[in-house]
Amino acid sequence: MKKLMILGGSRYAIPVIEEAHKLGLYVITCDYLPDNIAHKYSDEYVNVSIIDEEATLKAAQRLKIDGIVSFACDPGVVTAAYVAEKMNLPFQGSYESTKILQDKGLFRQFLADNGFNCPHSKRYTDKKKPFEDIDFFEWPVIVKPVDSAGSKGVTKVDKVEDLADAIDIAVEGSHNGAFIIEDFLTFDGYHSSADPFTVDGKLQFVSYSDQLFDKEADNPYTPAYIIWPSSMKKEHQKTLTEETQRLMDLLHMKTGIYNIESCVGINGKPYLMEVSPRGGGCKIAELQNLAYHTDLIENEVRKAVGLPLIEMKQNECDGYWCEMVIHARPGQSGILQGISIDEDIKEKYVKVIDMSVKPGDMVKPFTGANMSLGDMFLRFDSREEMNTVIGESEQWLKIILK
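^ that's the sequence the OP posted. Answer follows.
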């Protein structure tokens, strides 16, 4: 029986475990949190820090794994690439290429060095250094950890006087203490977050989304709604697809799923903001399977252990789909009693509800993806209908707190 190691134990790993079990695989989950929910679904749990490359490698060698993934788990991606390379297992790219993709500072530098559109940015490890570069940036700026996901530790800074606090927040949200500062991009339309798939380095499935933010949330840069198909102009989608393929060629990428963040600036330039060799959080691949009838999760599992892939098709989106991140409204916090959804809305539009919290859990402000209460998939026949219903969500979705 082939063995698949999954780094991370969040609920986002559960669909991967389920697909692996359908294929007859033995699943091992790893992290340093034994109570994480995915460990209840796997065949074996290993208590190891997934950012500790050598410790994870030793566990993988001892267990004689046949494949490794870090699905929707950003901290484990570089470690997964390291283990895969050391054990000659399939992975999207080499250890060196993965390190470039996973470090926002290294990635920005690679983009700039190779002629991609890229915001003005610099990577730092010294909190004082940025104050020597005040005139280097076009203000306002964004300050981010180089190695975090889900908008954790991200702050927009309008004035130099607020920079030190933003740097402290970024460093606190980083695993290695490094952070980047870059020019704040004003979007033409919406940011996109989607999961494509390559086979032998060539893009076989690509999608783009509209990523909407809750401007009133405690962190207004955490995605609250992701919509397919995207309203991005086809010409910009074409350019981004071509640039993504060029990036894959330059980094000698192979086969697997990615989470790609992209946007178009008001200057008319399309930008690749993040390219991570893993499935995205927020259950993106699951929604795309419903919307496009293409199962990227099964193919990611098959790739990881060397099984033949199933056919992937670049289908049109079946309707209009919204991934709604259920989250606390501004100022809301307390003990969760439950959520209430209008029955008419639920019957007409809601296809999936996946809660990450239960009654009795503490609800905190929406400061990052890790503060979401769950995900909801909704399907509509038109974008206009979707906009109306989503715009009225405060009326039909109630979060009941003590």
